[in-house]
Amino acid sequence: MNESYTIPIGPLHPAIHEPITLKLEVSGERIVGVDVFCSQVHRGIEWIGMNRNNAIQSIYLAERVCGICNICHPLCMVQAIEKAAEIEVPERAEYIRTIMAELERIHSHLLWAGVAAHEIGFDTVFHYTWALRENVMDLIEYLTGNRVTKAIMMIGGVRRDIKEEGAKKIKEGMKFYLENFKKIEEIYLHDPTIKMRTRDVGILTKEDALKLCAVGPTARASGVPKDVRQDFPYAAYGDYGVKAITPDVYNGEVHGDVFDRIIVRLLEVKQSVDIINWVLDNMPSGPLLAEKNLVKLKIRLKKAEGEGIGRVEAPRGEDIHYVRLKAGEEPFLSWKIRAPTYNNVLPWIPMLLGGQIADVPIVAASTDPCMSCLNRVTVVDTDKKKEFEITKEYMHELSVRKTRRLMRNGR
Best label site of 125, 188, 278, 374, fewest CB within 10 Å? Predict the structure, then answer.
């Protein structure tokens, strides 16, 4: 009779250096039970933001919700405030917001692809992918002055313009990625070992993706064609007409596995290049801000009263910010954030059940999780059996061993 054991993994995530705990019930190498324990890194950003002197100061807190998604969070927040205060954003500012959001998507997806390669033991591919990512990071730094926190969003528009020279550099950057896309596609979608390690691993069915409210590439890889840019267009996306990418557009089928999540993200890199080129070619003239005078803007916000919701398709999926304004209260009565990782953690359970321990790092990483964005959910299963600890380093080693074993066996 096979005896099962409970293995705690964490509190460090097996794929990234952030706190989350997985408790896996295993029988031999097979996972037969999964518990996920989150909320180990709560920083109180919403509470701090509600106690700042004004809403403008809170934009920079929104940037720090996540070190990677620091365009989508402040964009989502200012959208919510603009709706609550009935502020109309100039068209040129909306187009610049779109460019910055898509540059962030390219940066985020390439970062993820490198991490995914590392988790299955391909550090050469990891370094190559991150070397390609440097191009977009340099471009972001050129446009904003910063590689990480960009500080470009403002209530009612953007803080910086894109001049003719900047547009030329962006075009050159997009040409660079189009030229290198075939190489990336060859590495990730045609290498036999990557396909062996990711095909039919971590399957999330379309039914489970809908039932568990998965978002972003995680949902689209399961055949759910939802994308905020398509379904609820904002910024310049309504003018462009974004279509959600699902894996069947590449190979005519949907498995809902890790390999399909690779397909979706790589195709979205090319889609982002196309969007940026179109926006640059159709950029309207005009002002960057609805109100240039910050004193007047602060007065207007102090008089504003109402509620607003911002919705943005972050690289990881749908991001939502809710704010409530009340006249005389600064910066706002309520600020609530629901980041995409909140939706994409529960799908880990059906993804991991029936899989092997060595696949945990790549399955968990395949949803591109961010624990500092998550902050809240806890899932508990009190049916415990025997426990012993496995470190994240050992989990990574198991993953690399499996890759080498498959290569030796010629599968």
Answer: 278
Q: Which of 300, 310, 235 is nearest to 56 (CA)?
A: 300
Residue 203 identity (one-letter amino acid): I
Q: 237: closest CA among 79, 352, 108, 365?
A: 79
Separation of alpha carbons 370 and 64, rounded Å:
12
Structure-block tokens of residue 401: 């061993």
Q: How far apart are CA 167 and CA 178, in angstroms?
A: 17
386: pLDDT strictly greater than 50:
no
From residue 301, alpha-carbon distances to 87, 203, 298, 307, 321 in Å are 10, 47, 5, 12, 17
* Percent above pLDDT 90 for the chain: 70
DSSP one-letter string for 271-316:
HHHHHHHHHHHT---S-SBS---HHHHHHHHHH--EEEEEEEEETT
Sequence-separated (6 or more) residues with CB below 8 Å from residue 395: 9, 14, 357, 360, 361
- Contact present, 135 and 173 (Cβ < 8 Å): yes
Six token digits for residue 359:
């696949």
Q: Which residue has the higher pLDDT, 184 or 13?
A: 184
pLDDT at 269 (0 to 100): 97
DSSP state of 250: H
Computed over every residue of the chain, the mean pLDDT equals 90
Neighbours of 288 (CB within 10 A): 18
Q: Tell me the C-alpha distance between 232 and 88, whole Å.
A: 17
Domains in the chain, please, with CATH?
5-40+343-409 (3.30.390), 45-197+267-342 (1.10.645.10)
Scanning the structure block, which residue is given the tokens 């195709």? 267
The 3-state DSSP class for residue 127 equals: helix
How far apart CA 368 and CA 379 sit, in angstroms, is: 19
Report the candidate in 127, 129, 148 with the shortest Cα–Cα distance to residue 138.
148
Distances in Å between the alpha carbon of 328 and those of 48, 54, 77, 121? 18, 11, 20, 56
Q: In what order do the strands lie in the sheet with 5-9?
A: 30-37, 21-27, 5-9, 386-387
- The first and second tokens of residue 365, run together, are 């990483």
Asked if 358 contacts 398 with a C-beta cutoff of 8 angstroms, the reply is yes
What pTM value is reported for the model? 0.88
Q: Which residues does 189 contact at the CB level (< 8 Å), separation at least 6?
A: 195, 250, 262, 263, 266
